[in-house]
């Protein structure tokens, strides 16, 4: 295992910060940061967490930093059905229901769908059954020819946006399984050299669905101050119509559900 100082230096490099930048942000001396990184000073648990906070280190990785420094982990990772998370999941379910008639999904850090609302169901109707066996991966669902890919009119743009988002995510928090998914489905090919989208935040996903084209864009919601790894690593992706015709499709064709958000996690 690498030392806590080496790990902190790696995180600092990922964030493209100098030792002075980190020291100012954490309200410590640059010399102290240097001594910690070189192993000449053993940081306290509080100092490890202070530096990790300024570096935006995910909670899972903060536990690893603490272990490397000789301390017990501070952040728990609870199963999704743990009673202590029930209030959080009830809040998530309310968000999913409130977003109907438009689709919304809850994703984990590897883009597996944990939960979704009923507005997503019609889009899954013609997906190959093997892609719907838990854990259902959103990236695979969208890009696999057996999934939604044949219905996405601007598939190249969508793939480019996903490539950018996941590459940024891997740069922020490396993960072997997500990296393997990236290499399988998103690694740039010969035709992708230099390809980009003009404005990622407004590029719609265009579906050919129900005899018409539906244009959707998405927003992402996360928990603001989670102290549990499970909550820290989930996000709600909510889809909105990008034009009046798409909005009319959902508002006229959606039947109000009588159940909570649907879980398709393993």
Blueprint (SSEs and pairs):
Blueprint: H1 4-14, H2 19-26, H3 30-38, H4 45-54, H5 59-68, H6 86-99, E1 104-107, E2 113-116, H7 121-124, H8 138-143, H9 155-172, H10 176-185, E3 205-209, E4 212-221, H11 229-232, E5 235-241, H12 244-253, E6 262-263
Antiparallel strand pairs: 1-2, 1-5, 2-6, 3-4, 4-5
Helix pairs in contact: 1-3, 2-3, 2-4
State the order of secondary-structure elements, H for helix, E for strand.
HHHHHHEEHHHHEEHEHE
Average pLDDT, rounded to a whole number, is: 89
Count of beta strands: 6
Which architecture of the largest domain would the CATH scheme give at its second level?
2-Layer Sandwich
**The CATH fourth-level homologous superfamily of the largest domain:** PAS domain
Number of domains: 2
Low-confidence stretches: none
Provide a count of the helices: 12
Q: Within the largest sheet, what's the order of strands?
A: 3-4-5-1-2-6
Q: How many angstroms does the end-to-end distance come to?
A: 31 Å
- The CATH class name of the largest domain reads Alpha Beta
Structural class comes to alpha+beta
Strand content: 5-15%
Which value, in Å, is the CA radius of gyration? 21 Å
Report the helical percentage.
40-55%
Largest sheet entry: 6 strands, antiparallel
- The CATH topology of the largest domain turns out to be Beta-Lactamase
Descriptive notes:
By secondary structure, this protein is α+β, with helices and mostly antiparallel strands. The chain folds into 2 domains: 4-68, 434 Repressor (Amino-terminal Domain) (Orthogonal Bundle); 83-263, PAS domain (Beta-Lactamase), CATH 3.30.450. It is built from 12 helices and 6 strands. It has helices at 4-14, 19-26, 30-38, 45-54, 59-68, 86-99, 121-124, 138-143, 155-172, 176-185, 229-232, 244-253; strands spanning 104-107, 113-116, 205-209, 212-221, 235-241, 262-263. Strands 3-4-5-1-2-6 form a 6-stranded antiparallel sheet. Helix 1 crosses helix 3 (30-38), helix 2 (19-26) packs across helix 3 and helix 2 packs across helix 4 (45-54). The mean pLDDT is 89.
